[in-house]
Every structure is written in C-alpha cells, then in structure tokens.
Amino acid sequence: MKNLNFSTLKKLEIILEGEHQAFVTDLLDRSGVTGYTIINNLSGKGSHGFHEGHLMFNEDDVLIMVIVAVPEDLVNPILEGLAPFYSEHSGVVFITGIEVTRMVKFRH
C-alpha cells in the first residue's frame, strides 16, 4: 500500500456492566463520536474478583467493552461525563494512543 497517511487518535476502551450500555453510548453520541464497537460477555479479574463472561440471565448481567477512537480533544469531555458514573459503578477506561489510515471514518 503506497502513500499511507496516518492520523493520530486516542482509543478508549470503556468497560462496564451491560445494563449501563445505553448510558455510555448516549454519552458518546452526544459528545460527537461517529462510531464505536461493543464487545459483549467479557471475562476477567479486577478489584471485584473474577467475572465470568457468559450470559447468566440476560445481556444486562455481563461486562461489556465499548471501543471508540476519538481526537484528543474529545477525551476529556468523555472522561468528565463518565466520572460521576464510575463514582457509583464498577468499571474502567483504558486510553491508548493509536494511528489510523482512514481518518475520513472518524469525522462528522
């Protein structure tokens, strides 16, 4: 592939209980995010112990991860929107610097 143009973005990996998915996706939509990926049924170990990633009773009872790539100027507004949520609920946000080749996919 010739003439690849790389653009720098931040990747947020937002992990939370599935019952709160609408809260996060609404926050992202209101923040101007143009797209995101949702991964259901996460397994892992954290401060609340081990969490099994299979469906128990319904999709609200599992952990999910919402992955979004955003310009750096959107990171703080998103984190500020999540701060009150995480003071009441479990979860975490991982932030990583990334590069993308099709910046047109990340604009309004």
Condensed summary:
Helix content is 25%, strand content 37%.
Provide an overview of this structure:
By secondary structure, this protein is an alpha+beta fold. It has a single domain (7-100), classed as Alpha-Beta Plaits, CATH 3.30.70.120. The protein has two helices and six strands; from the N terminus they run E-H-E-E-E-E-H-E. It has helices at residues 21-30, 72-88, and strands spanning 7-17, 37-42, 44-46, 49-51, 63-70, 92-100. The strands form two sheets. It has a four-stranded antiparallel β-sheet with strand order 2-5-1-6. The chain has a two-stranded antiparallel sheet with strand order 3-4. A hairpin with a 2-residue loop joins strand 3 (44-46) and strand 4. It is globular.
Q: List the uncertain runs.
A: none
Beta fraction: 35-45%
What's the architecture in CATH terms?
2-Layer Sandwich
Please write the string of helix (H) and strand (E) elements.
EHEEEEHE
Q: In CATH, what is the class?
A: Alpha Beta
Task: Detail the topology: elements first, then pairings.
Elements: E1 7-17, H1 21-30, E2 37-42, E3 44-46, E4 49-51, E5 63-70, H2 72-88, E6 92-100
Antiparallel strand pairs: 1-5, 1-6, 2-5, 3-4
